[in-house]
Amino acid sequence: MPEQYETETAAGAAEPRLVIENCAVATVDAHDTEYATGHVVVRGDRIEAIGPGPAPGRPGGPVRRIDGTGQLVTPGLINTHHHFYQWLTRGLATEHHLFDWLVALYPVWARIDEPMVRAAAEGSLATMALGGVTTAADHHYVHPRGAGDLTGAIVGTAREIGVRLTLARGSMDRGAADGGLPPDFAVESLDGALAATEEAIDRHHDPAPGAMTRIAVAPCSPFSVSTELMREGAALARRKGVRLHTHGSETVEEERFCHERFGMGPTDYFAETGWLGDDVWLAHCVHLNGADIAAYARTGTGVAHCPSSNARLAAGIAPVPELLAAGVPVGLGVDGTASNETGELHTELRNALLVGRLGGRRATALTTRQALRLGTYGGARVLGRQTETGSLEPGKLADLVLWRLDTLAHSSIADPVAALVLGAPAPVTLSLVGGRPVVEDGRLVTVDEAAIARATRAEAGRLAGLADAD
């Protein structure tokens, strides 16, 4: 290990402590408390202390000390919307709007199976972890017949890598024969989707504090599922006590579809089917008017903002400053890597700020601190975990990241938060999830990165071969 790491052993409490000191600290607490030079003490899976200057005293028991000089510690990043399986189809359909993009890619996605999904989850989670993500939400809605245990593959991969997971068990029951976009053999029946979703909750959802795995009910979108699946999915989620997730108001085409098919816009349709509430978060939410924003704020409905994907698919600019001003919970999302090929969340801090300022006289529409809050506490709030994670406070889970800002790329930016948000991607010195290292010195410590790269290349090639054979 580098010389900044030092291990002490002393008599006393057996539970080990980790002391990070001499670093800048951005707590992202309710007061946005920051220390130019401070410390964080981790004991077990929790933050024990945080404050300015060096850590006080010499705690007993096993202690590991890290000299954070030239670095910044923040809460771990929280990704509120992703499609892990899309790792296998990056770089395709690069000049398409959403509906054309879906039409181009659904025939490929309809061929995924369990080994492919496992490899794609490995690639997605490993990339996010290397970029400071400690909690990720995956919206998986493609379940081809005979594909195997896709849910189990995703949950098992997250457990192996060591990142917290909210798996939004998605579904589609409107195939091409019913006017939908996906092939018919890639969708489920209404009863089959509901039964499989309930099984996923019963097998994998952990409601306990500090849980590594949570399940949400997540029909794909208003244009790929029936109204019955929306209504009954909402009822299932509330009966089981889990959260609800879907896509909403992503494109003008979706707005037009909802008016033509349901006689109302997406927000009114969500209200009609039980999909507004403080247990709901919706992805994208680009095309919202004042009444829509007021409805989200009134009901506590959360938003997963995906600026890179929105730009990649030319969907538009989400009204994030207006959502925040109204009090709507907003977090950041990578979205699938078929529409955001970088696959990591740090880029979204920067792009959320830059995209939010587009237009006349919007230089203060989003600040660097607001961007960091979107990627940390905002994401925790959207996923219903704000009492456990999303900020650095004593008693909260030790989900945190130590970022190197002493590099050439950051050398002349005095403000560490501005350096993190606006500067080049900062290397990760250390990433902890529940006090357990996942990344050290820019390398994953839980899995073999090279093996993951080989597996994802192989499975992407196999998927492309199956698609070409058709």
Strand content: 15-25%
Rg from C-alpha positions? 22 Å
Mean pLDDT: 94
Q: Extract low-pLDDT stretches.
A: 1-13
For the biggest sheet, the summary is: 10 strands, mixed
**Percent helix among the residues?**
25-40%
Query: How many helices does DSSP assign?
Result: 14
Helix vs. strand class = alpha/beta
Gap between N and C termini, in Å? 51 Å
Which outline best applies? globular
Q: What is the total tally of β strands?
A: 18
How would you describe this protein?
The chain is an alpha/beta fold and 470 residues long. It has 14 helices and 18 strands. The strands form 2 sheets. Strands 1, 2, 3, 4, 5, 6, 15, 16, 17 and 18 form a 10-stranded mixed beta sheet that branches. Strand 17 and strand 18 form a beta hairpin. Helix 2 (114-130) crosses helix 14 (449-469), helix 11 (346-356) packs across helix 12 and helix 12 (368-382) crosses helix 13. The longest helix has 21 residues, at 449-469. It is globular.
Q: Care to give the gist of this entry?
A:
The chain has 470 residues and is of the alpha/beta class.
Present the secondary structure layout:
Layout: E1 5-8, E2 17-26, E3 34-43, E4 46-52, E5 63-67, E6 71-75, E7 77-79, H1 98-109, H2 114-130, E8 133-140, H3 150-161, E9 164-171, H4 190-204, E10 213-219, H5 227-240, E11 243-248, H6 252-262, H7 266-273, E12 280-284, H8 290-299, E13 302-305, H9 307-312, H10 320-326, E14 330-332, H11 346-356, H12 368-382, E15 400-404, H13 416-422, E16 428-433, E17 436-440, E18 443-444, H14 449-469
Parallel strand pairs: 2-5, 2-6, 7-8, 8-9, 9-10, 10-11, 11-12, 12-13, 13-14
Antiparallel strand pairs: 1-5, 2-3, 3-4, 6-15, 15-16, 16-17, 17-18
